[in-house]
Amino acid sequence: MGTSTTNGASAPSSSTAMRPWADDLPNSIRVEVGDLAVPFRDIAVTGESPVRVYNTAGPIAHDLRDGLPKRRADWVAKRWGIAAPTQRWFARHGIVTEEMRFCAIRENVAPEFVRQEIAAGRAIIPANINHPELEPMIIGRKFLVKINANIGNSAVTSGIAEEVEKLQWATRWGADTVMDLSTGPNIHATREWIVRNSPVPIGTVPIYQCLEKVKGKVEDLSIDLFLETLEEQALQGVDYFTIHAGVLLHYIPMTAKRVTGIVSRGGSIMAKWCLHHHEENFLYTHFDRICDLMRKYDVSFSLGDGLRPGCTADANDEAQFGELQTLGELTKIAWAKDCQVMIEGPGHVPMHLIQENMTKQLEVCDEAPFYTLGPLTTDVAPGYDHITSAIGAAMIGWFGCAMLCYVTPKEHLGLPNKKDVKDGVIAYRIAAHAADLAKGHPGARLWDDAMSKARFEFRWEDQFNLALDPDTAREFHDETLPAEGAKSAHFCSMCGPHFCSMKITEDVRQYAAAQGLSDEEALRKGMEEKSQEFTEKGAEVYLQA
Amino acid sequence: MGTSTTNGASAPSSSTAMRPWADDLPNSIRVEVGDLAVPFRDIAVTGESPVRVYNTAGPIAHDLRDGLPKRRADWVAKRWGIAAPTQRWFARHGIVTEEMRFCAIRENVAPEFVRQEIAAGRAIIPANINHPELEPMIIGRKFLVKINANIGNSAVTSGIAEEVEKLQWATRWGADTVMDLSTGPNIHATREWIVRNSPVPIGTVPIYQCLEKVKGKVEDLSIDLFLETLEEQALQGVDYFTIHAGVLLHYIPMTAKRVTGIVSRGGSIMAKWCLHHHEENFLYTHFDRICDLMRKYDVSFSLGDGLRPGCTADANDEAQFGELQTLGELTKIAWAKDCQVMIEGPGHVPMHLIQENMTKQLEVCDEAPFYTLGPLTTDVAPGYDHITSAIGAAMIGWFGCAMLCYVTPKEHLGLPNKKDVKDGVIAYRIAAHAADLAKGHPGARLWDDAMSKARFEFRWEDQFNLALDPDTAREFHDETLPAEGAKSAHFCSMCGPHFCSMKITEDVRQYAAAQGLSDEEALRKGMEEKSQEFTEKGAEVYLQA
């Protein structure tokens, strides 16, 4: 299907250019706030002002061949001539950029606070100067917890159109960034379509493309090929690169006795290169040259954890923490060059070992944002690793992890299809929001409270619309009570009218409210007097019950 | 379909009597160990001894009309004449019962340890003397974390056959106990079919049947009707009763200002009764009479949290902790009568407030086992509450909660169907196992390590068989690599051959092993010497890579 790219890959046609699903979720509209047109989603709620939530979905339907509106073009144009036009450079020079203001409005904080966090290295705004379509977002532990969705085809599967649709599908459900992990043919073309149509930062693992260029011969990899590939991708507008510069020669033998050794693709590639050449990792020895290139385009570092544990048995071992130490050293080098940096983390970690990961990372990486994959809290549930990992992700998010890389139900088994992408994104939106609640992030609770009120008042339509996944909530409700009448029924299929605790509570509440009873009073007056009160006023309450 | 019960309800016919699915999971067999024939599941693993795991599925196919073999009949018969034939009474009199020995073998601990935990009230074995079909199990924080699955029809849905099938389906996937929450007609008949065919303890909420008896008129409830109903259910063999004796009159006004008031069905029923009669909860005022009946049959108390929070906003409030205090007082009364007791807990609790629930419960209830519903860590994801709650369940299980009541994807939306029951059970098996790992429960890790080894060695069939849900694991793998050959392929669809980190690690490991390198050595010898080593021996390793 579709038009054909130079290398013959199937690219999106105009017919697929329009999203095959509704632009907005039910009873929601995209609103754009202020002179920077910062996007939000307003969810209409019966009889109350709409609930305004964060919105990652991007502008409404457009032709994929045109790409998204280039909202950052003018912002970036003004900055020509600055050697290191990174958000960190501006922040450290006291300049609040449009990107910082944009993020401040999105997060409901002061622009100056955003600037300070970025200057301190505690937060980053991944925003390549060549990605004008971007709606800037901030990653840092003093902001909302973010989630990343991985897409990308492999030698085994899928075409460009499919990947672009996955991008839009992932952001529709709430992905804050998307990584394109394509390894098959057409990596370049696929990436171009993705970046031009992405409102969220795009991340890649450049070593994958390098390996394609040397036809899989790891030993032929070199720093020059790597830098050339970085530049190719930076010019396309990729916002952050995963770079496994911490896989040092002397860490490699530490993985030999592990149950699952090295499980990171990039990590194993660099390990193989190091062993073959009996030389130190060229990403480490030439790190300064990489920094110079990154800052030219303001591509953020995502320092890869190539030695992350691949099973709970290998968690928090010498190899993992040794590499983390090195990532901490590299962070300081990158900062000195005004590059933005985040640090990647595990992986597979049982619950009791999660906190140590967060504590150590903040310590050895000077509070640079942490970006973990899960972690998965058990190894025995392939097919359900979005759940085994949502548990660990929610916990580490609460402990201070800034971004959570999703895991789909297909992890360890295959590449995610559209359904898997949605399941992974929803599981991680749950983990991130649970973490925001636990951190007491201002405003995080408003959404929950709106849902709870709707639940208590039997506003079924509002419950569906306020749900992270309105379609599924409605579908599940209708399975047992399909009748439209049931949408306004003051009971539900779980209990039926007799047993409706909500109904009874309403009476209790009305009664107590009518009596102006506070908890204190209730206790002070004591049982006896209270009984009398009930005797006098109680009856009428329950005539209508 | 099927034969008809006295009250005309549709009961299972012989055709549905045989389970409509395979008796054992793939490559697994049920084994029975020792003179008590304690069940386990042995999972065959290529080239290694089988992995032996806990087994809740019960005996293989039988005719539902006959019920399960009555393995406890003789054990119980010997005990006639004892006024309080409870496991607690025996434990406190230094007697190790067959049930205790059975649990000791299941948990791989000493029988004397089981006896001590029960005597101390830190654990219970719910085992009604009239439930001879039971395969005894123990609930306590020093044992494996258990999970409960709720089934039961309501006025709105489903028949007896369907509920019995849900029972077998739930235990097949790992439910340790099952609560029958039926509220519609045929409660008695449904329960009879369930108990006779259940290898796991059955719990109920007797107040539901009482309310049916008074045709939904809460004010007509009385202690005599309640005791009569308890006896009816105790005679059938129900193993534990949820009793909301902690909902006291003076706590009720404390719920008036909540966002969602009272959400427990039993709690709201008792609240309504109290307000109507302006009297104290009759379950509280006549608690001693309830104890006398419970101990006669050794029905365990599950003291209900009728005032649990129904949303994160109401978590850990005065009403909730006030009731908990009362449950602690009642625990001592029940213990004095040698009744077994566990305590029910929330509900909806954000992550940062979960630990306090566990700490307070252990303190005010003298370490009686805690049994929580979730808790759900956010309110905004109806349709995914098996995930919002698995996060909280795993955490509180790690903190010391003894049993986790599952939440299905249908929570807040409708009654669970078979798929929902499975999804809920699997999510909770994950939470419980993650908690066992975090608690360092002896042997818990063996299963994970076996899976990780199979993963590292590309033993795909073993990975499927070792999975909590082998069917789904295989199905997901086959979606991308259906060919039988792929089952033995030394790579998978995620990376393809070039990028296979596992493959590369194998080389690294073989190399290091061949050199007899330990981490220590590797570090001691230092980089230089190591480089030389690699130069000498390295080449040949990668000739075959």
Give a quick set of tags describing it.
homodimer; 545 residues; alpha/beta; eight-stranded parallel β-barrel; three-stranded antiparallel beta sheet; 21 helices; 11% strand; disordered N terminus; disordered C terminus
Number of strands of chain A: 13
Give the overall form of chain A. globular
Helix content of chain A: 40-55%
The Rg value of chain A, from CA coordinates, equals: 26 Å
What's the mean pLDDT score of chain A? 87
What is the structural class of chain A?
Answer: alpha/beta
- The residue ranges of chain A in which pLDDT falls below 50 over 5 or more consecutive positions are 1-9, 14-18, 519-545
The count of helical stretches of chain A stands at: 21
Oligomer: homodimer
The neighbouring-strand order within the major sheet of chain A is: 6-7-8-9-10-11-12-13
What's the story with the biggest beta sheet of chain A? 8 strands, parallel, barrel
